[in-house]
Amino acid sequence: MGSSITERISERIDLMPAGERRAAQTLVANYPLIGLRTVADFSAAAGVSSPTILRFVSRLGFQNYAEFQNLLQEELSAQLQSPSSRAGRAAGQSDIDALPTIETTIGNIRETFRHISKKQLAECVEALSNSRGKVFLVGGRFTDPIARYMAAHMTIVRPNVFHLAGQESTWRDRLIDMGKRDVILIFDIRRYQDSLARFAEKAGERGVQIVLVTDQWLSPIARFARHVIAARTEVPSPWDSSAALFVVAETLIGEITRHLQADSARRMGEIDRLR
Fold it and tell me: Can you give the pTM of this predicted structure?
């Protein structure tokens, strides 16, 4: 699979002039639907001129707006696929082709990190390391174990880290404790979880910073997120792979530990003495 549009944006956004950057931010915040509208509609939503939209599309490597929209439509179709529809597609393949291979998984990890910039990673680490606020972590049906895994590590290296377990009503009860200094790290991949999107919207209204780790097609939560990391998840299987998501989580854990080197070393020493 070639680079997705969000991956192309991540690669090039630091080189974009202000107008094209606004176009990129508007597309990510309304992904992918705003890009499927006319150039005039897209430009009005972004507050830039139509030629700026066309230059933005060209910078992403497309010959014209129609080619850009064709890939968006393909991505939208992939975004809406369910495990049952992918199982039907895999049924006609050989047993070997239908298995998620080690090579595919390794490729997903490699491509994920090829499209994450140092600046992007540093901004996420800075947000998650700010000890003046609290950090909350939550995920969906299949991604919440990653949130819980990451929270278990972060609790050791910094204070005020909380994994949001249980039902949506439980998460909403915690909103009263969240404010502008706080951060929520959310893991959400297709099929995206409506309850997470509702929760993210409410948290955003309270000024909470949202860090989203999602797939290459972007969870709707991207419209509320300040920082977005897109990981490759597709493998030749009815089920998406979480391997790249785990490596993203472990990378963040390692970088946060280094960022808080003195404090994390002190906390780990005190924890060892308490055992």
Answer: 0.84
